[in-house]
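Morning run. Coffee first, then this:
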Amino acid sequence: MKNTLINIIFPSLLALNLASCSQYESTPFTGDYSYYSGIGEFFDCKTSVKYYLGKQGVSEELKEKYLALKLNEKDDVYLKVEGYLMQESAEETLIPSTVFVATEFISFDTSRGCEVGRREGH
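And here it is:
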């Protein structure tokens, strides 16, 4: 009986653990971040593309740290962060789109930012 329980419970726990692992790999990103009207936006300096933040990862932490800076509405702050890009499915949103998922906050810098003239919306 004891071996039967181990043979059932252990594989189930292993499968659950593997399923919870993310299929995405976090990498370093730098860019301008802002939060207003309930939406977090990230402008990637490297690609000059703006993304909305996904609700996964540390998006709530970024929002709280940004709001604590007490900037003017829509002001950007330079962000160093770890994260990944993720395609949202039609089940999650009406129009499939790519969102940025921040997984680890590194730093904010209010004294600098990306080059504003190169921005293109996404």
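Residues 5-21 have pLDDT under 50 and may be disordered. Good start to the day.
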